[in-house]
Specification:
CATH architecture of the largest domain: 2-Layer Sandwich
Helix content: 25-40%
Pfam families: IMS, IMS_C, IMS_HHH
Number of strands: 11
Largest sheet: 4 strands, antiparallel
EC number: 2.7.7.7
Catalytic activity: DNA(n) + a 2'-deoxyribonucleoside 5'-triphosphate = DNA(n+1) + diphosphate
CATH superfamily of the largest domain: DNA polymerase, Y-family, little finger domain
Strand order of the largest sheet: 8-11-9-10
CATH class of the largest domain: Alpha Beta
CATH topology of the largest domain: Dna Ligase, domain 1
Structural class: alpha+beta
Distance between the termini: 6 Å
Family: Belongs to the DNA polymerase type-Y family.
Number of domains: 4
Radius of gyration: 22 Å
InterPro entries: DNA/RNA_pol_sf, DNA_pol_Y-fam_lit_finger_sf, DNA_pol_Y-fam_little_finger, DNA_polymerase-Y, DNApol_IV, PolY_HhH_motif, Rev_trsase/Diguanyl_cyclase, UmuC
């Protein structure tokens, strides 16, 4: 979907149409979750602090998110997908892979199916979608971004290797900023540069991911569309109107976040063993700690207790070898995530082991609308 959250807001409020809109945060606090294309022309992007976004676009209109509405629209869109194939792998509320090798309708090509789907989305939701058509997931993803907004692009088998050659590696889905920086340090800046490396050389620097990088540099990706791919984690986070510095406020915030995570797990019949804390300071520096339990978390109170134990070392309230010094500045954001999910029900009365080993989780990022 094209700028999904912001486009829904502009659809539902005619006064926002044609104006630069940011969903999430506020004029002074928080982070942009989605930006309309009018806002993007000023350089406003998802994950950008609100104050930075306002400096770039003083007329930016902030709108609070309505995730219940976005979920309802997403369900409409997925119902449209399901008319054409049962092989649907959701990536987020607004994006999915579809395998149409053997479609449910008689259409002459995958391109024709993509055209039908885009037309149905526009007619039934009033929103626009972009589609990428190709012979594997990696290239279809690249193609879907190539003609945004409201675009359709096809990468044929003959085009695939050439299409990858000139692309910067940071444009590759599956190569994040940290990996792109490592590649740049090795002189790998484009797909053609990446293709010049053999498997052994890539393995020395990138380990198990080398096979994937070796393949995509040649336009190859054998990953199937996985319609039943299990959820890996569930989380919630909160940006505070004012930085918090005292333990009672922080503990209360973790109670609320833990309740939200637990309710999301309960709706899906899930529990998990690994609790991760995310912390962002007033200067936007971010850190986190995680702890894995021997069994699934047994109750909401237990989840909150583990989250609080993960946070305590960041305060001067905690003494001992894990002490990390006084809290010199306020906390801007806290987040709690539960992972290592399992559909099996948590056992009432299960023991919780609370001897904590600190570990950083650099992958913690807000769930953002990046379309």
């Amino acid at each position: 979907m094209d700028a999904f959250y912001a486009s829904v807001e502009q659809r539902d409020d005619p006064t926002l149409r044609g104006r630069p809109v940011a969903v999430g945060g506020s004029r002074q606090r928080g982070v942009v979750a989605a930006a309309s294309y009018e806002a993007r022309r000023f350089g406003v992007r998802s994950a950008m602090p609100s104050v930075t976004a306002l400096r770039r676009c003083p007329d930016l209109v902030f709108v609070p998110p309505r995730f219940d509405v976005y979920r309802a629209v997403s369900a409409q869109i997925h119902a449209i997908f399901a008319r054409y194939t049962a092989l649907i792998q959701p990536l987020s509320l607004d994006e999915a892979y579809l395998d149409v090798t053997v479609p449910l309708v008689a259409r002459p090509s995958a391109t024709a199916i993509a055209q039908d789907i885009r037309a149905a989305i526009r007619a039934e939701t009033g929103l626009t979608a972009s589609a990428g058509v190709s012979y594997n997931k990696f290239l279809a993803k690249l193609a879907s971004d190539h003609r945004k907004p409201d675009g359709l692009y096809v990468i044929t088998p003959r085009m695939g290797p050439r299409f990858v050659e000139a692309l910067p590696v940071e444009r590759f889905h599956g190569i994040g900023p940290a990996t792109a920086a490592r590649m740049h340090a090795l002189g790998i800046r484009t797909g053609l540069d990446l293709r010049a490396w053999d498997m052994a050389g890539l393995a020395r620097h990138f380990g198990k991911a080398a096979a994937f990088y070796h393949g995509i540099a040649r336009g190859r990706d054998d990953r199937p569309v996985e319609p039943d791919r299990p959820r890996k984690s569930l989380g919630a986070e909160r940006t505070f109107d004012r930085d918090i510095r005292d333990w009672p406020q922080a503990a209360a915030a973790l109670d609320d976040l833990s309740a939200r995570v637990w309710q999301a797990c309960a709706r899906r019949g899930l529990s998990g063993r690994t609790v991760t804390l995310k912390l962002r300071y007033a200067d936007f520096k971010q850190t986190g700690r995680a702890h894995s339990l021997p069994g699934p978390v047994a109750a909401q109170a237990a989840l909150s207790r583990v989250a609080q134990d993960l946070l305590r070392p960041f305060f001067p309230l905690k003494q001992g070898p894990l002490k990390q010094g006084p809290l010199e500045q306020g906390i801007r954001l806290l987040g709690v995530t539960l992972s290592n999910l399992d559909a099996a029900e948590a056992r009432p009365g299960a023991q919780l082991v609370l001897a904590l080993d600190p570990s950083l989780d650099p992958s913690l990022d807000p769930t953002l609308d990046r379309g």
